[in-house]
Amino acid sequence: MPTHHQNSTSHLLSSGYQPVAEEVTLPFPTVRGKLPTELDGTFLRIGPNTLGSHDPARDHSFAGDAMVHGLRLRDGRAEWYRNRWVRTDRVARALGELPTPGPRHGLSDNTNCAIVQHAGHTYALGDGGALPTRLGDRLETLDRVDFDGTLPGGFSAHPVLDPLTQEMHAVAYEPGRPGVDYLTLDASGRVRRCENITVKDTPMMHAFSLTDRDAIIYDLPVTYSARAAAAGSRVPYAWNDSHGARLGVLPREGGDADVRWMDIAPCFVFHPVNAYGRGRHIIVDVMRHERAFDRVPLHPSESSPTLWRWTVDRTSGTVTEAQLSDQVQEFPRIDDRYTNSPYRYAFTVGLRPGQGAALAGPALLRHDLVTGRVDRHTFGAGREGGEAVFVPRAADAPEADGWLLGVVHDTATDRGELVVIDTADFTGPPVAAVRLPVRIPHGLHAQWAASG
Ligand SMILES: [Fe+2]
Predict the structure, then answer these.
(1) Can you give the residue ranges of every domain in the chain?
(2) Which pLDDT value is given to residue 61?
């Protein structure tokens, strides 16, 4: 096992992490290079952006007020850039606006993690049981939803959309709710199944994996911490050596009694890459952290995530664990058409060693999981980027043939840009960059919302 890197949190003080203080609407920002005309839609990026005073030494790095950034691309032009706070109760009150309509559930309505589209709607999603917030085409907050009353508890930051069935699956957890909920939403966006799965200690389950047959539940040793809660943490979870670590293989239509639990080495996973079945095996690729939320309660400071493959053997009920790449990296994305299917390519953000909890890094990596080859797209001196989303060149394009879209922050100018990288020249310069006169702070997840 690699030793724990001495992670620094100093990157949180760098300019790329500083929240922006206002919402702006910028028509026709400058494009350098040539924006592919096939890109007709809106690039979305969400993350924490505290409204009001912000103190990285006191505030949990995951708890800042949700802000969504968007760039509308059409006909080879960028029609607009916008950034908007999601109207949580706290933000609406601070801005002197009416509260967001819709139900309220759980500890927080701060949906600052991810953006997903399902059944014709766009949702901002939070962790720890927050209800989804529905967003409009211009990034405005519409309402909070419980899927027409079909959601029994909270929701998840990382549901998985099955590209074949158009059903959305999720594992939801929240402080105070026993077990976790395995949810299946039908193609119309209503929960058609909810199975409560028994786990102890209320583990953090930021995500899970899905194949065409099974859900794979991560029961890992970051668990609810009453001490952190009493100390006022807005994310009261901590590493727990006594919890153990195991994967639960749950048939998609099964229940609690059907879960097969298999022990693995203690670790934490925020983000799966992909998963699929292969004969009696299940391949589960993840960004594996050796440890998280141990020494520093406000930040997963000991993280040095790398790419691992868990091979689940259904016959023996065991898991083989293998590191596929020892480079520090996070924020994996694939060609989403290959979700739950055998796949070859993964894109991740290459992070600086010692900054494994950073939200951005100096490069994007492309993994060829068949040959083991890793290609590197570097952003250039003083430039760092976060999660990049893949858009296929055409509906029938080969796997991973298209463009990667991601936000880059330039330290010298303290400004942001959207870069468009053609995977046909992955290591070359971007084919286009939309340059903004403002910063887009490093944040969490990105999404491409194709128009129509
Ligand atoms: Fe996430």
Answers:
(1) 36-138, 331-452
(2) 66
Name 234's bridge partners: none
Query: Between vectors from CA 83 to CA 78 and to CA 88, what angle results, nearest 5°?
Result: 150
Give the pair of three-digit tokens for residue 148. 């027409």
Place of tokens 């039908």: 186
Q: Which two tokens stand for residue 53?
A: 């005073």
Rounded Cα distance, 77 and 226, in Å: 51
Q: Name the CA dihedral angle for 116, 119, 123, 128, rounded to a multiple of 10 degrees.
A: -80
Distance between Cα 44 and ligand 1 center (Å):
15
The whole-number pLDDT of residue 13 equals: 72
- Cβ–Cβ < 8 Å for 54, 64: yes
- Please give, one letter per residue, the 3-state secondary structure of 320-388: EEEEEECCCEEEEECCHHHCCCCCCEEEEEECCCCCCCCCCECEEEEEECCCCCEEEEECCCCEEECCC
Q: What is the pLDDT of residues 129-183, one digit of tens each?
A: 999 999 999 999 999 999 999 999 999 999 999 999 999 999 999 988 889 999 9
Expressed in angstroms and rounded, the spacing between residue 113 Cα and the centre of ligand 1 is 6
State both tokens at 302.
């000991």
Buried b (16+ CB within 10 A) or exposed e, 73-97: beeeebebbbbbbbbbeebbeeeee
CB contact burial 195-214 (16+ within 10 A = b; e otherwise): bbbebeebbbbbbbbbbebb
- What spacing in Å lies between the alpha carbon of 440 and ligand 1's midpoint? 18
Tell me, rounded to whole angstroms, the distance of Cα 1 from its chain centroid.
26
Contact 160, 170 (CB under 8 A): yes
- For domain 331-452, the question of CATH label 2.20.140 is answered with no
Residue 29's closest CA among 381, 422, 416?
416
Task: Please give the pLDDT value at position 5.
Answer: 41
State in Å: Cα 272 to ligand 1 middle.
9
Alpha helices for 175-302 (secondary structure H)? 226-230
